[in-house]
Amino acid sequence: MARKKITPPRTEQLALSELTIEQRQIEGLSLSTIVRRRFFQHKAAVTSMIVLGLIVLLAFTSVGTIIGGTGRLAADTESGEIILDGLRISGWWPYDWYRNYPLTMPGGLPSWEHPFGQDTLGKDIFARVMRGTQQSLTVVALIGFLATVIGVLIGSIAGFIRGWLDNLLMRMTDVIIIVPGLILGAVLGRTIGGNAIALGILLGLVSWTGLARLVRGEFLALREREFVDAARVAGASNSRIIFRHILPNSIGIVVVNATLLMSAAILTETALSFLGFGITAPDISLGQIISQYNEAFKTRPWLFWYPGLFIVVIALCINFIGDGLRDAFDPRQRRMPKTTSLMRQFREMTNGRKK
Amino acid sequence: MLSFITRRLAATFVVLLVASFLVYMLTANSGDPLEDLRIQNDPASVAKRETLTQKLDLDTPPFFRYFKWLGGAAGCAIGQCNLGISVIRGDEPVANALANAMESTLSLVVLATILSILFGVAIGMTVALRQYSGYDYTVTFTAFIFYSLPIFWVAVLLKEFGAIRFNEFLGDPVIPWWIALAIGLVLGLIVQAVVGGHLRTRIRSAGISLALTTGILIVADITQWFRNPSIGIIGIALLGAGLGALMLFVTSNLTKRTMQFSVGTTVLAVIALWYPLQFVFFFFNHPLTIVAVAVLLAGVGVAAGFVFGGDDRIEAMRVSAITGALATAPLVLDQMFMRWGDYVQIIPLRSGVISTIGANTPILANDDDTWMRMLDSSTHLILPTIALMIISVAGYTRYTRATLLEVLNQDYVRTARAKGLPETTVIMRHAFRNTLIPIATIVAFDFGAVIGGAIITERVFAWQGMGALFNQGLSQVDVNLVMGVFLVTGVAAVIFNILADLAYSALDPRIRITEA
Asked: Cα B186 to the chain's mean position, in Å?
């Protein structure tokens, strides 16, 4: 985004000094450098990114994962042991999420052996929560990717070409928007039943509507700008104008809203699994764990706390990253504290407010 | 105006039609309603399978079945709804099942939406006015956390902690002095952060709210108010005065003599009418009485505004009328609290007053006393409403904050300040009204989300509402039931959308919907 340089009038120079310093800082830098720099100044966002990275790492390395297969329980033909269908990659955690183990503590209380406790059957809750986190993250990533791609495509085509195609695409969007998200998700989830990847793909196919509307609005505004005319005069094709000229200018909106969409996605997925229309047993999702142990809250609260905690932390991290990105792309709406603000505020309190 | 609404309705109608087709096909293909029966091969199951196939018309492909369903649903327009029967609910007509479920779900959803808007906008505005203060950061951070909470998790927590602890308290309502002091301190801290200003102002506002809160709590404790809560004429007087002051403040008329007189007279009239209205509430024991009383009190307000309005007659009449109508709420609350003693006797002892299950107590569901029924519904509504509100309020707070900050940067706000208008007038008249414009549009969007939230909340609190119907219908592939729920939510969403459009044009004179 081209930023205009403002030369402040003398009288306002004091008030704008902060702005001019900021402008001097970014002079001659590319947009991506500026955005990256601003993002890394946002402490909450950076912390969230690290935490989220650690959660991803922990979830996938600890209990390993399964690639392919139906995810259903089956008896091994040779040993007769119960295994999951698919290619099993094991992790460093000694317990599996689908096996029952002898209770180490009475009632399955958390212990060193099983830090998140065990349920009545002796299943290791840490392993279950890790597998649930994996599944939820997979769904979120799929929804985020698909919804962003479809939303950007449909929004940009509608906004750039306009006319009947725009009308058609927007009515299509309306049709999806009018069905409450959870109802649509539940019907879709019930149809394909149980599998994280299928659920992620299906939900991704219907979650693009909000983004498409925003991108369309942005395109409608940007396509009238001079740089688009210049590109057209220079002989650029429509697709070149869309992807090389307009889209980079609306990247802020896309990135920020894709992130926020993903934080909504984890809540949708867990809610669906809680209702029994998302990921279903024997596969695990965080919502499904909570629904399974819902009644045990009074006697075994640990069955309930940990999966919920992971949902909250993941959603919170994604939200903060989205906020950091918003600040980075659009510094006018800065939200998070600067380090000096508390001191300044105290001084203002004692000396009276400066306007 | 009328042509706009018709055109808008026609467009949404087509969208709704296509969406209903989509949902019908998806639901019909989501599973096999005869799944359980197919496994067995004994003659009884085979016969049952055949009757079900006939009843559900399963030999017809879903594509054609949809049009049959649509034909029945079209009858709703002329008052003869035929939404099919729900096999899993013992062949009950879906329209009947919906009628019962709608009442409990819509009361929950509408109440939660209205309260969320009120709280969200109020909090968002105070936050925006104290931008970059500790209060701002605290609220913004809290809103972030609330925004990230899964509703089913919160609902279970509320059920366990909110209900059970509070019921224990109501069982033996004693407030130790130090808890009263602690509550007062917390409130004082919040109030000083909201009010802001110099250190001295802050200390004063914190002190006043501390003294007030702690005082009220201690008085309530001494008079055993929590054991037998009531409002009475004193409560009506206090609440009425508060309401009047709030209305004057919100419309930035706090200092105008004429407005003070007309609103004050309305409030006095409400207090004076408290005693005669007792008879009205007693003899006309019907929900519509509330509407009648609201109209009556609004009429009193109009009269007061007409008499005392002076130069601002129209506005005085309007503000007083709204004050009068809103003053119905404490009067109805008063009626409900009068039945508290009986209510505590009636409800099952073990379940506690704040209920965690269902939309009403079965033995009270058909009680003759309207106010008793309302009291019962309220105690059942509290927890699910809070669960739904937590997420919505966070959204509205964030949105209001962003919008008001943007509005405050506009030229017309600077102009208003430059004219020398008092800051209250600038905020309430110039900034607040313009802030409401974009908020009106997200209300419509939020409604769909709240419906979704209601499905989950109903599950946790075991409500027999539309969410329960939907869950039941979808898990057993009862297409008619799912479609019924979809129809209600879809139509409600359409209505909210159009209301948002109308509100938009009413709030913003730049938007003329006749031209749209």
From this structure: 27
Chain A's closest residue to B458, CA to CA, is A275
**Alpha-carbon gap, residue B425 to B188, rounded angstroms:** 26
Nearest to B461 by CA among B157, B13, B75, B100: B157
ipTM of this model? 0.82
A187: number of Cβ within 10 Å: 25
d(CA A311, CA A274): 12
Please judge whether B470 and A186 are an interchain contact, meaning their C-beta atoms are less than 8 angstroms apart.
yes
Per-residue pLDDT reduced to its tens digit, A324-336: 888 888 765 544 4
How close, in Å, is residue B44 to chain A by CA atoms? Answer: 28
Q: How many CB atoms lie within 10 A of CB B428?
A: 18
Rounded CA separation A162/A242 (Å): 13
Which of B138, B141, B152, B417 to probe the A interface (max A CBs under 10 A)?
A: B152
Look-up of token digits 């102009």: B415
**Chain A hits for B152, Cβ within 8 Å:** 270-271, 274, 287, 290-291
Q: Do B448 and A180 touch (CB under 8 A)?
A: yes
Cα–Cα distance between B202 and B194 in angstroms, integer? 9
For testing the chain B interface, which of A139, A183, A207 should be mutated: the one with the most B CBs within 10 Å?
A183
Q: In the numeric block, which tokens belong to residue A149? A: 């791609």
pLDDT of residue B351: 63
Contacts of A184 in chain B (CB under 8 A): 23
Assess contact for B251 and B428: CB atoms under 8 A: yes
Residues B313/B306, Cβ–Cβ less than 8 Å:
yes
Report the predicted TM-score, pTM, of the whole model to 2 decimal places.
Answer: 0.83
Q: How far is CA B96 from CA A349, B351, B474, B488, in A?
A: 62, 30, 18, 13
Mean pLDDT of chain B: 84
**Are the C-beta atoms of B351 and B357 separated by less than 8 Å?**
yes
Structure tokens at B113: 């939406």
Q: What H or E segment, with its residue span, contains residue B86?
A: strand B85-86
What are the structure tokens assigned to A151, written together? 């939303």
SS3 call for A87: strand
Q: Report pLDDT digits (tens) over B7-50.
A: 878 888 888 899 999 999 988 888 777 777 777 777 877 887 88
3-state secondary structure B162-199: HHHHHHHHHHCCCCCHHHHHHHHHHHHHHHHHHHCCCH
